[in-house]
Design a protein that fits this description.
globular; alpha/beta; six-stranded mixed beta sheet; four-stranded antiparallel beta sheet; 10 helices
Length: about 280
Amino acid sequence: MNRGILTAHNKLVETARLPIPEVQTQEQQIMQQQGNSNTDAAVLRVEHIVYTVKGRNAPILQDVSFQVAKGETVGIVGNVGSGKTTMLKIIARLLKQTSGEVYINGQALSQQPLAETRKLVGYVQQHPQLFNRTIYDNIIYGNEQSGKATREYVQSLVTSLGLEDAFTNLPNGLETMAGKNGSVLSGGQKQLVQMMRLIITDPQIVILDEVTASLDSDTKKKLFKLLDIALKGKTILLVTHDPELAVRAKRLLHFEAGKLIKDENSSSGNRSYGFTSQIW
């Protein structure tokens, strides 16, 4: 065989033996770029979540994966309908995914009792769910067996947080019936009740979904005081239009049309504008 042809043949054989480089999907690239890529360090791990609704052509969430480290504060951003709130509700187990899994501390949420998830994940939403029970009962809801579920502790919590004047307009204070869906209370009072419930629950992961929307400045100050106590050392996921709350996020997950399209550090000087301008 011609020496030149033989050399070329040998090179082709050597090339064929080389490993074929893996072509990464956009989702895999995002996972690789994440600062908390060590799965052992991730308190929250979301893997290949898909969520579909009957009668809708496109999935609301499409193969979403990400990780969040212990103590990390992450902002979830995207336009209306991008899937961000759906993702948060799946983590809180208010919705069930079509496929995929959510892990906390390495354990699949679908394999644990719902009550256990409620202790691990606190979901604080714009419109709190209250019941036609006393305000005290609403504060301790879900924690009735806790040592903190006493009137003495709740009253001391109200006093230590400087919230004595928050419920003075009510005839029986914390013993006032909240009414159906909390109808007796203002929006700000409902949020304060929800935040005190969060402090008593003391979850590992806290989800904040537009918690400061429509609050007056005085109630917002009280709420931020509660947040500073309730969120200390917690892993936090948040959606907000409020620049004062937005700046707490050190990392942003960008959702678009049900997909996680970008994962970035939010340390730029224009952080709060970039966050709030993209979040709705």
